[in-house]
TrEMBL record:
<dbReference type="InterPro" id="IPR004527">
    <property type="entry name" value="Glu-tRNA-ligase_bac/mito"/>
</dbReference>
<dbReference type="InterPro" id="IPR049940">
    <property type="entry name" value="GluQ/Sye"/>
</dbReference>
<feature type="domain" description="Aminoacyl-tRNA synthetase class I anticodon-binding">
    <location>
        <begin position="332"/>
        <end position="472"/>
    </location>
</feature>
<feature type="domain" description="Glutamyl/glutaminyl-tRNA synthetase class Ib catalytic">
    <location>
        <begin position="12"/>
        <end position="318"/>
    </location>
</feature>
<dbReference type="InterPro" id="IPR000924">
    <property type="entry name" value="Glu/Gln-tRNA-synth"/>
</dbReference>
<dbReference type="InterPro" id="IPR033910">
    <property type="entry name" value="GluRS_core"/>
</dbReference>
<comment type="subunit">
    <text>Monomer.</text>
</comment>
<keyword id="KW-0963">Cytoplasm</keyword>
<dbReference type="GO" id="GO:0004818">
    <property type="term" value="F:glutamate-tRNA ligase activity"/>
</dbReference>
<keyword id="KW-0030">Aminoacyl-tRNA synthetase</keyword>
<feature type="short sequence motif" description="'KMSKS' region">
    <location>
        <begin position="250"/>
        <end position="254"/>
    </location>
</feature>
<dbReference type="InterPro" id="IPR008925">
    <property type="entry name" value="aa_tRNA-synth_I_cd-bd_sf"/>
</dbReference>
<feature type="short sequence motif" description="'HIGH' region">
    <location>
        <begin position="18"/>
        <end position="28"/>
    </location>
</feature>
<keyword id="KW-0547">Nucleotide-binding</keyword>
<keyword id="KW-0436">Ligase</keyword>
<feature type="binding site">
    <location>
        <position position="253"/>
    </location>
    <ligand>
        <name>ATP</name>
    </ligand>
</feature>
<comment type="function">
    <text>Catalyzes the attachment of glutamate to tRNA(Glu) in a two-step reaction: glutamate is first activated by ATP to form Glu-AMP and then transferred to the acceptor end of tRNA(Glu).</text>
</comment>
C-alpha cells in the first residue's frame, strides 16, 4: 500500500497553478483563494505557477488577467510566477533519472493502434486502457521496434496494492493500482506531459499542501506514484468541490463566466469578493460577512464543504453592499476618485473635500462603487433630469414656490440646518407639504426625485449650482 503522510512539521507552502488558456473567472479565483488564505493563516508561503505547456492555447493576455486579478484582490504571491515552459531542462533531467531507475520505458504503440485497442476493449465492455504491450517484464519478449517511429515515454505504474491518501475534503481515498494504466509522461518529441511536470514542480517548490478543484482527483493517484518513484513523499491534498454557475452548470467561460477583472470594473470591492468566494465552500459558524483580517485569522482546512456551491450574483451584490456600507468614507472616496476621472471629472474638482461626505450620504443606497460613482458624478457635472420625472414634478403650479425657494437659499447660511429652515419658510408661506416642494427641487438640482434628505443633498451640490438650477428650469 502507498499512502500519503500529512506534513505536520515545517513551513506551509501552497500554490495556485492556473493554465493561461482562457481568462481567469471566479471559479478559478476560489481555487486560488483557499491556498492563499491557508498560507497566510499559517504564516506560510503562497506560490504562483503558470502551467503554460499547452503552447497553442496559452496566451500572454490570459497571463496578464491572472496577474491583474490577483493583484487587485490583494492575493499577491510570495514566489513566482514560475512558468513551466521555462523549466523544460529540469523536467527532461528528471525524466532521465526515472528512466535510468527503470520507472520509465519507451512505448512505440501509435495512435491508430491505440485507438483500435480501445475500440476492442469497449466492444468487450472493458475499461479502455493501455495494455502494457511495450512494458518490459522479466521473461517477456517485446515486439520489434518499428522503423522511423518516435516513442512516447510511459511511467511504469506499480502493480498490485492501492494508492491512498487522506483528503482534507473527501476523507480517505483509495485507488487500486491495477485500475491505473501506464501513463504517458513524455510525448514523441520528448516534451513532458502535465502529470509529470506538476510533480517535479511540487517537489522543487517544496509544496506541502495541494488545494485544488476536484476535477484533479483522477490525477492524484498517478501523481502520488510518480512522487514515490522520484523518492519523495507527496503533499497533503484537499480537492475542492466544483463551483456551479447560476444555471447549475460548472462555472466556465464556455458557460458565460466573466473574467475576474469584470467585477473590478463593475465596482465590486476586493474584500467583498473574497468574503463571498470564501463562503462558497468554507464556513466559520454562521458568519456571512467578515473582513479580510477575520478570514485570515479563521481559515483552516477542517471546515471545507463537500458539496458543490452555486454562484449567485444577487448574493454577491448583497455582500458587496454590506462591505460598502462598512467602509470608511475617506477610503471609499479614494476608490471613487479614479472612476470619476474616467467619467470626465477633473482631478482638481475632486480636491474640494466633498467626496467623502458624498460617500457617507449615498453609500447605504449602493451595492457597487460604480453605482456610488454615478451618484457622486451628479455633484461634479451637469444634470439632465429624466423627462418623465420633470413632467411629473416640475409643474407650472409649483413654479412660484421654486422661485421663492431660490430666493430663500440665496440669502441663508449654507449648511443643512439653514437650508432646512429655508424650506420650512417657503412651505409655510406657500401652504405646501414637504414632498410637494422637495421632489421638484431634487429633480432640478440632481436629476431625480429620489435622494437622501434634501437639505443634505443641496448642501453638497453648492449654493451657486442649486440656485441656478432652480431658476433655469
Amino acid at each position: 500500500m502507498t499512502e500519503t503522510t500529512s506534513s505536520s512539521a515545517g513551513r506551509v507552502r501552497t500554490r495556485f497553478a492556473p493554465s493561461p488558456t482562457g481568462f481567469i473567472h471566479l471559479g478559478n479565483i476560489r481555487s486560488a483563494l483557499y491556498p492563499w488564505a491557508f498560507a497566510r493563516a499559517t504564516g506560510g508561503d503562497f506560490i504562483l505557477r503558470i502551467e503554460d505547456t499547452d503552447v497553442q492555447r496559452s496566451s500572454q493576455a490570459a497571463v496578464d488577467v491572472i496577474l491583474d486579478g490577483l493583484q487587485w484582490l490583494g492575493m499577491v504571491p510570495d514566489e513566482g510566477p514560475f512558468y513551466q515552459m521555462q523549466r523544460m531542462d529540469r523536467y527532461r533531467a528528471a525524466l532521465a533519472d526515472l528512466q535510468a531507475a527503470g520507472h520509465v520505458y519507451p512505448c512505440y504503440m501509435g495512435v491508430e493502434e491505440l485507438d483500435a485497442l480501445r475500440a476492442r476493449q469497449l466492444a468487450d465492455k472493458e475499461k479502455p486502457r493501455y495494455d502494457g504491450t511495450w512494458r518490459p517484464e522479466d521473461g517477456k519478449s517485446l515486439p520489434p521496434v518499428p522503423a522511423g517511429v518516435q516513442p512516447v515515454l510511459r511511467f511504469r505504474n506499480p502493480q498490485g496494492g492501492v494508492v491512498a491518501w487522506d483528503d482534507k475534503v473527501k476523507g480517505r481515498v483509495e485507488i487500486r493500482n491495477d485500475e491505473l494504466d501506464d501513463l504517458v509522461i513524455a510525448r514523441p518529441d520528448g516534451t513532458p506531459t502535465y502529470n509529470f511536470c506538476v510533480v517535479v514542480d511540487d517537489i522543487d517548490m517544496r509544496i506541502t499542501h495541494v488545494i485544488r478543484g476536484d476535477d484533479h482527483v483522477n490525477n492524484t493517484p498517478r501523481q502520488i506514484n510518480i512522487f514515490r518513484a522520484l523518492g519523495k513523499e507527496p503533499p497533503v491534498y484537499a480537492h475542492l468541490p466544483t463551483v456551479l454557475d447560476e444555471h447549475g452548470e460548472k462555472m466556465s467561460k464556455r458557460n458565460g463566466a466573466k473574467p475576474v477583472t469584470h467585477y473590478r470594473d463593475e465596482g465590486y470591492l476586493p474584500d467583498a469578493l473574497l468574503n463571498y468566494l470564501a463562503r462558497l465552500g468554507w464556513s466559520h459558524g454562521d458568519d456571512e460577512i467578515f473582513s479580510r483580517e477575520q478570514l485570515l485569522c479563521w481559515f483552516d482546512l477542517d471546515h471545507l464543504g463537500r458539496s458543490a456551491a452555486q454562484f449567485d450574483e444577487a448574493k454577491l451584490r448583497w455582500v458587496n453592499a454590506q462591505h460598502l456600507k462598512a467602509m470608511a468614507d475617506d477610503a471609499l472616496a479614494a476608490l471613487l476618485a479614479p472612476q470619476l476621472q474616467q467619467q470626465g471629472v477633473s482631478a482638481q474638482a475632486l480636491t474640494d473635500g466633498r467626496l467623502p461626505r458624498i460617500c457617507a450620504l449615498f453609500k447605504d443606497r449602493c451595492d457597487t462603487t460604480l453605482a456610488l460613482a454615478n451618484w457622486a458624478h451628479v455633484f461634479y457635472g451637469e444634470v439632465a433630469p429624466a423627462q418623465a420625472e420633470r413632467a411629473q414634478h416640475v409643474t407650472e403650479d409649483i413654479a412660484p414656490a421654486l422661485d421663492a425657494l431660490a430666493d430663500a437659499l440665496t440669502a441663508c447660511a449654507w449648511d443643512r440646518q439653514s437650508i432646512g429652515a429655508a424650506f420650512k419658510q417657503v412651505l409655510a408661506a406657500q401652504d405646501l407639504k414637504m414632498p410637494r416642494l422637495a421632489m421638484p427641487a431634487r429633480v432640478l438640482t440632481v436629476g431625480t426625485a429620489h435622494t437622501p434628505s434634501v437639505d443634505a443633498v443641496l448642501e453638497l451640490v453648492g449654493r451657486e449650482k442649486v440656485v441656478a438650477r432652480l431658476r433655469n428650469r
